[in-house]
Specification:
By secondary structure, the chain is of the alpha/beta class. The protein has one domain: Aldolase class I (TIM Barrel). The chain is built from eight helices and eight strands; from the N terminus they run E-H-E-H-E-H-E-H-E-E-H-E-H-E-H-H. An eight-stranded parallel sheet has the order 1-8-7-6-5-4-3-2. Strand 6, helix 5 and strand 7 form a beta-alpha-beta unit. Helix 2 runs parallel beside helix 3. The chain is globular and about 40 Å long. The two termini are about 15 Å apart. The protein binds D-xylitol-5-phosphate (DX5) and zinc ion (ZN). Zinc ion binds next to strand 2.
Length: about 220
């Protein structure tokens, strides 16, 4: 399978959201990456259900929703109704991660687990076979446009090995600081999904930048 590219809506122009949605629709991007922040789990607040529902109305590609919120179980149903196709929760935010994953899948969504940069891959050992995606944070979550953390390459290699050992089908997603200098190496070590916010929307020609990340 060739890798997927998921532009992060967090870096879009919210005053021209429909224009930026069409840009992604008409590009080689595979998913919309949608960052939800609660101001508690991360030191920032992004957007919630009304914006995601509006996005869903125009998006012609799956919504990859990344929850940076505490106690996400309260809202899994609501995110399904808002239009999430992939729903990713943070391992650090879930006391009963196994239950959360089962809930997400029972609602008909793909279940993802995100790890902060300091969180060890080994903590996924007993859950990796149950999940569809692992989102490796390559910056500390909360903001777009931060610098890529180099230790991510080692984590991708470790995760790939664990996925293989446990016969898991989980995709490896990289989120934070992905750019035109590091994306090739990320693919080479085993990344399957590249999230890119600032690299896409901060560039002069976003459609071409998506094509570069894709090919
Ligand atoms: C960070 C978010 C990312 C962010 C990535 O907390 O989870 O998805 O939008 O943005 P860039 O690609 O600019 O680092
Ligand atoms: Zn994200």
């Amino acid at each position: 399978m060739s890798h997927l590219v998921a532009p992060s809506v967090l870096s879009a122009d919210f005053a021209h959201l429909e224009r930026d949605i069409e840009l992604i629709n008409n590009s080689q991007a595979d998913w919309f990456h949608v960052d939800v922040m609660d101001g508690v789990f991360v030191p920032n607040i992004s957007f919630g259900f009304p914006v995601i529902k509006a996005l869903k109305k125009y998006a012609k590609k799956p919504l990859d929703v990344h929850l940076m919120i505490i106690d996400p179980d309260r809202y899994t149903q609501a995110f399904k109704e808002a239009g999430a196709d992939v729903l990713t929760v943070h391992l650090e935010a879930c006391t009963h991660l196994h239950r959360t994953i089962q809930n997400i899948k029972a609602l008909g969504m793909q279940a993802g687990v995100a790890l902060n940069p300091h969180t060890s891959i080994s903590l996924l050992k007993d859950i990796i076979a149950d999940i569809n995606l692992v989102c490796l944070m390559s910056v500390n979550p909360g903001f777009g446009g931060q610098k890529f953390i180099e230790n991510t390459y080692t984590k991708v290699t470790e995760l790939k090995e664990l996925i293989h050992q446990k016969n898991s089908k989980a995709l490896i997603e990289i989120d934070g600081g992905v750019d035109l200098k590091n994306y090739k190496k990320l693919i080479d070590v085993g990344a399957n999904v590249l999230v890119a916010g600032n690299t896409v929307f901060g560039s002069e020609h976003p459609t071409e930048t998506i094509a570069l990340l894709k090919n």
